[in-house]
Amino acid sequence: xxxISSAIVGRPSRVYWRWFLEPSVSFPAAEFFTxxxxxxxxxxxxxxxxQENASFQIFQLIWPGALAAQAISAVARIxxxxxxxxxxxxxxELAKTTGTKVESLYRLLRALxxxxxxxxxxSGHFAHxxxxxxxxxxHPQTTHHWAVxxxxxxxxxxxxxxxxxxxxGQSGFKRLFxxxxxxxxxxxxDQVEVYNNAMSSGSRMMIQALLExxxxxxxxxVVDIGGGQGELLKGILEAHSGLRGKxxxxxxxxxxxxxxxxxxxxxxxxxxxxxxxxxxxxxxDVYILKGVLHGFTDDDAVSILxxxxxxxxxxxxxxxxxxxxxxxxxxxxxxxxxxxxxLTLTAGKERSEDxxxxxxxxxxFEFIQSRPTSATNAVxxxxxx
Length: 385
Known about the structure:
Distance between the termini: 47 Å
Strand order of the largest sheet: 6-5-4-7-8-10-9
Largest sheet: 7 strands, mixed
Number of helices: 21
CATH class of the largest domain: Alpha Beta
Strand content: 5-15%
Number of domains: 2
Mean pLDDT: 87
Helix content: 40-55%
């Protein structure tokens, strides 16, 4: 058994410690959160429990996992990481900067420092660790937006319904809020921002991994369906100066897609609002669906594919970018728990390669290949038939 918490307290657990030190290995934001959601107090119980004991393994998963995850989310929302610079800061100064109570903030930071997020350099003074520094908004591999997103009340409350979800098959989100997540977002613009920021952050982290495994230079026009605020499309266009791009998402999302108005991509890109159940932009020779289909049932996913099939060029390509589960019995926890999150929030799921093959045929496409990336996601490539 690999001691999970050894990644936090500095013991030699290469498997988990790489997640912090080698962002290119995989998707750091989701992994960062996974580590602390499942981190246990091994260092606390080591003298009284056998590490191979089944009960101890459960303790590794549940304590302080749930509290640690919310603590990270809270400290991200408060903005402590941004308030700490190169030198340690006193809790009193941090409390003044963040508008919090000194004693409460100290207790939060002390708890987080026990699992490697911040370090107390002297009494009442805290400095960054590599983990806490990634919570800064200006960090190149920032985990800030994902920490805020994964700690959102509507996610946690929905997860609290997991037992009923498993029993009924109905998502916890719909059970609690009585509507699908899209309708909820339309009525809660503050949560739309939380969601969009997390998705954009994930897209920025995905760009290099995608460009490493897929060559866009042979195409003329890329269409990003459900592409959010345009971060992924921008990265692709910046890497290929001869490529044009179209961003397609709901009108309210497109309204905030300002990244496509900056630099030389502004002359080669177009943002279009609409509903992909009705139609999608025509004229593209490569269409991208990143993190879209896993939020929908098979029938709805096929409907989306059919709309793309009617718009894509005859010699075009479709790229589906999702956390495709492995075919082996060795399950990746990041992918498996993403599937559980989809069960909780949506009517969709993470799909295997065989399941994608079936969907693609029904949608008018032929599976070509699935390419793993250095991030969590894989790229499923298909062509129209």
